[in-house]
Design a protein that fits this description.
By secondary structure, the protein is mostly helical. The protein has a single domain, classed as Up-down Bundle (Rhopdopsin 7-helix transmembrane proteins). Helices cover about 65% and strands about 10% of the residues. It is built from eleven helices and six strands. The protein has helices at about 40-70, 80-100, 110-120, 120-155, 160-175, 175-185, 210-235, 245-270, 275, 280-295, 300-305; strands spanning about 5, 15-20, 20-25, 30-35, 190-195, 200-205. The protein has a two-stranded antiparallel sheet. A two-stranded antiparallel ribbon has the order 2-3. The chain has a two-stranded antiparallel sheet with strand order 5-6. Helix 2 (about 80-100) packs parallel to helix 5 (about 160-175), helix 6 (about 175-185) packs antiparallel against helix 7 and helix 7 packs antiparallel against helix 8 (about 245-270). The longest helix is centred in the first third of the chain and has 33 residues, at about 40-70. It is globular.
């Protein structure tokens, strides 16, 4: 393996991260990377191909199934299923955007693509969208758990579920604002050009002048996870009154996303190299799990998914 000198950074004191490396840049602004095919690098290549293939397969089938759930009876009138579909979609979009914004940057064949995004200012837009989808995926999981608990513990009308659905969309969209603001203020994400023995790449570097918003965002995510855990625990207690498939889907999806969140926190705050390299793996599993759990454990969805279109009544969507 060769040692590669990274230079050209602005000469001021700040710290930045990429994968497992956490450095403090002093006045010399020189940082050394060990390039080469280390076990973690090999795993990184494996997970990129493996998770990306699974993601493409899942997106293909999810488009078919989610279309039926949204536009065909009987599920088209059920706002619980609409909320589940929303969660499944943002999970897949979150993983897709992570692949675009972070995962592929370390491959030199993508250099010109990221240079194009950087020069035209599109990269920061992609980073904002990535942060938005990531937050929406986590927050909508909380809304699903709350929805299921309300359904099994109280008599709620369809009108109330409709209102809850739109409130959930608003809640899921607004809560990630902290991370988005951080990208434009205290923790901007920039692409820096580096040279490795395998080629020239542009790597995303987060430059923190103040990490207060980053901490707030992580605490916020941890609180949402804890709240979701409590709600799912209550659902398990009342499992005889709830639809088993939806209960399993909600809990399993939550568990995988929690693993991803814990892995991310360990990488960010404790600089665990393995955790930093496995982010995409955990995010990928967490993103595709909601769809496949819905198919495997929810009988009504599985039956609708494999019915022919002409056998399903079309539901008119009113604006």
């Amino acid at each position: 393996a060769k040692s590669v000198v990274i230079t050209g950074l602005e000469c001021r004191d700040f710290y930045f991260t990429w994968k497992s490396e956490v450095f403090t840049c002093d006045s010399s602004c020189s940082v050394y990377f060990q390039a080469g095919m280390s076990p973690l690098r090999i795993f990184d290549i494996f997970q990129t191909y493996f998770i990306s293939i699974l993601l493409l397969i899942t997106i293909f089938f999810a488009c078919l199934v989610y279309t039926k759930l949204l536009f065909y009876l009987p599920h088209s009138r059920n706002y619980t299923f609409k909320l589940i579909v929303f969660n499944g979609i943002v999970n897949l979009l979150s993983c897709s955007m992570y692949l675009l914004v972070y995962q592929l940057t370390s491959y030199n064949f993508m250099y010109r693509f990221y240079l194009y995004l950087k020069d035209r200012g599109f990269y920061i837009i992609a980073a904002v969208i990535c942060a938005l989808f990531d937050g929406m995926a986590l927050n909508s999981a909380l809304c699903i758990a709350l929805n299921r608990l309300i359904a099994i513990r109280a008599t709620t009308t369809e009108k109330n579920f409709k209102l809850f659905f739109y409130v959930s969309l608003l809640f899921s969209t607004l809560l990630p604002v902290t991370k988005i603001v951080d990208l434009f203020t205290f923790g901007p994400l920039v692409l820096e050009e580096y040279y490795f023995d395998y080629g020239q790449v542009l790597l995303p570097i987060t430059i923190f002048s103040n990490n207060i918003l980053s901490i707030i965002g992580n605490v916020q995510a941890a609180m949402v996870c804890c709240a979701t855990l409590l709600l799912n625990s209550r659902i398990v207690i009342h499992r005889n009154k709830a639809e088993k498939g939806l209960m399993i889907t909600s809990i399993v999806s939550y568990l995988f996303y929690t693993l991803y969140l814990i892995n991310t926190l360990l990488a960010d705050y404790f600089s665990f190299g393995v955790c930093a390299y496995t982010r995409y793996f955990y995010l990928g599993i967490a993103s595709i799990t909601p769809f496949w759990c819905l198919i495997l454990f929810t009988k009504t969805v599985r039956q609708s998914a494999f019915k022919r279109t002409k056998e399903i009544s079309f539901a008119t969507v009113h604006s």
